[in-house]
Design goal:
This is ethanolamine kinase. The chain has about 350 residues and is an alpha+beta fold. It folds into two domains: about 110 residues, 2-Layer Sandwich (Phosphorylase Kinase, domain 1); about 230 residues, Aminoglycoside phosphotransferase (APH), C-terminal lobe (Aminoglycoside 3'-phosphotransferase, Chain: A, domain 2, Alpha-Beta Complex). It has eleven helices and ten strands. It starts with 10 loop residues before the first helix and ends with a helix. The mean pLDDT is about 95.
């Protein structure tokens, strides 16, 4: 294991560690031939498997990558093959993603990474049921997720610089937004709804406001939407999948982003959790986080602690809208996934402007 106390490993150290930890295949899985590509990956990683014994199923909910579930029928073993979305490297640091998966697997927080190929990964499945949007608002499920988020934030240490990448990432993405989109219908929506000078100005104001909060920096998942949450009925526990956006960030951002995702891809913001629901979730989170250290206890979580985190989280909900709004503006030009990125960007920024003054005033 790459020592987690090495806070600034060199690129060579990271490359060597990944090279030794993860088998590398000189293969490409093409988006127009996913099953054959996945079969080639499986037989390369598991030479004892017969292609005729493997069944393939494509999951179509994702909006960044192509995902195939490969089931070895004689043993029941399931492996996921993920082919990266077109030009998704502009959005995602793939080396960071692999490091995340290797370390999280060693900590027992994610399944093993079996191998990587030119444009993707092959990794294990977490048993259980994928959440639906409504599950995110179920009281018992909310408690399980709050506890697991607290465990992540309290215990996960990934090699690298331990400063938030949130605004660095947004600044990187915003420079990838094109002056004009190649698809006329996309360009029409963009021109009607966005003034990039205003967006840049808003980003500067938002960053200044949120940095003053001094929200603790922890390792965050950064994408806790329903499709990345798994309920294991046997263990009565929640688990997280898909770690490609994982990085050090502000704890309040990770929580706020999860709250925003309770509204689903349709952005039904009437489902944003109410203050009483949030306070209960946040207390569970803080009590679980406190229990992870010997010197703290549940008794040390005060009402003011919960209120302070409530203020932080709702302010960072604005950053979540901005983050995914800019992400969608970039994806609208680059991605070949069947998803309406530009209308999604409009919905996220509309909610940002609708709630900005209210949340700034908290």
């Amino acid at each position: 294991m790459l020592a987690t106390h090495i806070t600034n490993p060199t690129e060579a150290q990271v490359d060597e560690y990944i090279h030794n930890a993860v088998p590398t295949l000189d293969l490409t899985v093409h988006h127009d031939d996913l099953f054959n590509g996945a079969a080639t990956v499986m037989t390369a990683l598991f030479p004892e498997w017969n292609t005729s014994d493997i069944s393939f199923l494509q999951f179509k909910d994702g909006i960044t990558n192509k995902l195939i579930c490969c089931t070895h029928n004689p043993t029941g073993t399931q492996v996921l093959v993920r082919a990266y979305g077109k030009k998704s490297e502009v959005i995602i640091d793939r080396k960071q993603e692999i490091m995340n998966m290797v370390i999280l697997s060693e900590l027992g927080l994610c399944p093993p990474l079996f191998g990587k190929f030119r444009n993707g990964l092959a990794y294990g499945c977490i048993p259980g049921k994928v959440f639906k949007v409504a599950d995110m608002r179920d009281p018992h499920m909310m408690e399980l997720v709050a506890k697991k988020v607290a465990i992540w934030h309290s215990t996960v240490t990934i090699p690298g610089e331990r400063s938030s990448k949130l605004f660095k990432t947004i600044h990187k993405w915003i420079h990838e937004v094109p002056e004009a989109y190649t698809k006329p219908d996309v360009q029409e929506i963009f021109a009607k709804n966005f003034d990039m000078k205003q967006i840049y100005s808003e980003l500067a104001m938002l960053e200044d406001h949120l940095l003053r909060l001094n929200s603790p920096v922890v390792f965050c998942h950064n994408d806790l939407l329903y499709g990345n949450l798994i309920y294991d009925e046997v263990k009565d526990d929640a688990f997280f999948i898909d770690y490609e956006y994982g990085s050090y960030s502000f704890r309040a951002f990770d929580i706020a982003n999860h709250f925003n995702e309770m509204c689903g891809f349709e952005c039904e913001y009437e489902n944003y959790p109410s203050r009483p629901v949030q306070l209960k979730w946040l207390r569970t989170y803080l009590e679980t986080a406190a229990s992870q250290t010997e010197e703290e206890s549940k008794a040390m979580v005060t009402d003011e602690d919960v209120e302070q985190l409530y203020r932080e989280v709702n302010k960072f909900a604005l950053a979540s809208h901005f983050y995914w709004g800019v992400w969608a503006l970039v994806q609208a030009q680059l991605s070949d996934i069947d998803f309406d990125y530009m209308p999604y960007a409009v919905l996220r920024f509309n909610e940002y402007f609708k709630r900005r003054d209210e949340f700034f005033a908290l």
